[in-house]
Specification:
This protein is α/β, with parallel strands linked by helices. It folds into two domains: 18-50 and 162-335, Rossmann fold (3-Layer(aba) Sandwich), CATH 3.40.50.1100; 53-160, Rossmann fold (3-Layer(aba) Sandwich), CATH 3.40.50.1100. 40% of the residues lie in helices and 15% in strands. The protein contains eleven helices and ten strands. The chain has helices spanning 22-27, 53-66, 81-93, 111-118, 128-133, 135-148, 167-182, 198-210, 225-243, 270-283, 292-304; strands at residues 18-20, 36-41, 71-77, 96-102, 122-126, 153-155, 189-194, 215-220, 255-257, 313-318. It has a six-stranded mixed β-sheet. A four-stranded parallel β-sheet has the order 5-4-3-6, with helices on both faces. The longest helix is centred in the last third of the chain and has 19 residues, at 225-243. It is globular. The N and C termini lie far apart (56 Å). The model has no long low-confidence stretch (mean pLDDT 97). The chain binds pyridoxal-5'-phosphate. Pyridoxal-5'-phosphate binds next to α3, β7 and α8. Its EC number is 4.4.1.25.
Length: 336
C-alpha cells in the first residue's frame, strides 16, 4: 500500500548519496569478519540547511503554508542544528523565526548561533533550569506575542520530532532502502544518533511500514534508553492519531543503545574526538562531537565487541551537525 504523505515544501537536495566506507571497513574488520559499512549522507541535504532536520522541516513548512502561518517558533540549545535549520528555512520562505534558546550567550556568536543571526532569526536566551521547567509557557508567551502583533505562528517542538516531523524519515527510509536496493543489498542494520527521537522514530516506523527486515538502532546522545523507547512510541502514536488510526506503536521493534552518552549532552571525551579525526582522515567525512561523532564512536566499539558479526551491510545515517564542530576546537589539541 503506497503511503499517503501530507503536503511538503521541497527544500532538500534528494536523494542524498549512499556511500561505502571501505577504508574504515577494512581497518575495523575483526577476526569474525563483520559488515561492510555504508553512510547515508544526510549531511548533504543542503549546505546551510544541512542535516536531518531539513527532511522533517519540509513537512512542517508544508503545514505552515496550509495553515496560513507567517511565523515559526521553535527551541533548542545555543548550538542547536534544528534551530539553525529552522532559521534558514524561515528566511528562504519569507517567514519570521523566533528561537527559544537554552543557555547564556556573550561575545561573538559561533557555529549554529552565528548562522541563526545571519538568517535574521530572533533569539531569546533562557537559563537551562527555566528553559526546561517553563518550556510550554515560553512557547505560549511567544505565540501570544506574535499573535498580538497580527501574526500567525506555528510552534515546532524540539528537533521537529512529532507525528508530522517523522514523515521526513518515513520518506527518508523509503529513499535509503531504494538506494540500498540499487546497490544490490537490503541492510540488516541501520544506525543513527538519537537526540529528540524523531529520526529514529521515522526510520523504525518506515522500515516497519515497508516490511523491511532491517533493524534500526538509535545511539543516544542524552537521556536514557527508557526515555527513547517512550519518546519513539509517543511520536509514532502522535503520527498514528493523525494519519493511521488503527496503528499500534507496540508493534514496533525499537532498539536503543545508551552506552556511549559519556558525560552528558554535548560533552564528549577524547575517544569521540579521535573518532572524528579518524573518519575525516580515512574517509574525508566530517562528523560532529554532539551527535554523529558520538554515535559513530559507539558503532565502532560495538563492532569490535562482535555485535554486528551476522550483518553483511550496515548503514550509518549521517545526520549532519558540521556547524557544531568548530565551537569544540579546543578538544582537538592531540592533532598538534
Ligand atoms: C538533531 C540531530 C540528531 C538527532 O536527531 P533526532 O531526530 O532529534 O533524534 C542527530 N544528528 C544531528 C547532527 C542532529 O542535529
Amino acid at each position: 500500500m503506497p503511503l499517503e504523505y501530507p503536503s511538503k515544501i521541497s527544500l532538500a537536495r534528494l536523494p542524498t548519496p549512499l556511500q561505502p566506507l571501505d577504508r574504515l571497513t577494512e581497518k575495523h574488520s575483526t577476526p569474525h569478519g563483520g559488515p561492510r559499512l555504508w553512510v547515508k549522507r544526510d549531511d548533504l541535504t543542503e549546505s546551510g540547511m544541512s542535516g536531518n532536520k531539513l527532511r522533517k522541516l519540509e513537512f512542517i513548512a508544508g503545514a505552515a503554508r496550509e495553515r496560513g502561518c507567517d511565523t515559526l517558533i521553535t527551541c533548542g540549545g545555543i548550538q542547536s542544528n534544528h534551530c539553525r535549520t529552522t532559521a534558514l528555512v524561515g528566511a528562504k520562505l519569507g517567514l519570521r523565526v523566533q528561537l527559544i534558546l537554552r543557555g547564556e550567550h556573550s561575545g561573538a556568536a559561533d557555529g549554529n548561533l552565528l548562522v541563526d543571526q545571519l538568517a535574521g532569526a530572533s533569539c531569546a536566551f533562557y537559563p537551562p533550569r527555566e528553559y526546561f521547567s517553563r518550556q510550554a509557557e515560553l512557547f505560549d508567551y511567544w505565540r501570544d506575542f506574535y499573535e498580538q502583533r497580527g501574526h500567525r505562528a506555528l510552534c515546532i517542538p524540539t528537533g521537529a520530532s512529532d507525528g508530522l516531523g517523522i514523515w521526513g524519515y518515513i520518506s527518508g527510509t523509503e529513499e535509503l532502502l531504494s538506494d540500498c536496493k540499487a546497490a544490490g543489498f537490503e541492510p540488516e542494520q541501520i544506525i543513527c544518533a538519537t537526540g529528540s527521537g524523531g529520526t529514529q522514530a521515522g526510520l523504525t516506523l518506515g522500515c516497519h511500514l515497508v516490511g523491511a527486515e532491517t533493524r534500526v538502532t538509535g545511539f543516544a546522545v542524552c537521556d536514557s534508553a527508557e526515555y527513547f523507547y517512550d519518546k519513539v512510541r509517543e511520536d509514532v502514536a502522535d503520527w498514528a492519531s493523525s494519519y493511521s488510526g488503527g496503528f499500534d506503536p507496540a508493534a514496533l521493534d525499537i532498539s536503543v543503545n545508551a552506552d556511549y552518552i559519556g558525560p552528558g549532552y554535548a560533552i564528549a571525551e577524547e575517544p569521540v574526538y579521535r573518532t572524528i579525526a579518524e573518519v575525516a582522515n580515512l574517509e574525508g567525512v566530517l562528523l560532529d562531537p554532539v551527535y554523529t561523532g558520538k554515535a559513530f564512536h559507539g558503532l565502532l566499539q560495538e563492532l569490535h565487541r562482535g555485535q554486528y558479526r551476522h550483518c553483511e551491510n550496515l548503514v550509518f545515517v549521517h545526520t549532519g551537525g558540521h556547524f557544531g564542530l568548530f565551537p569544540h576546537r579546543e578538544h582537538f589539541g592531540f592533532l598538534q
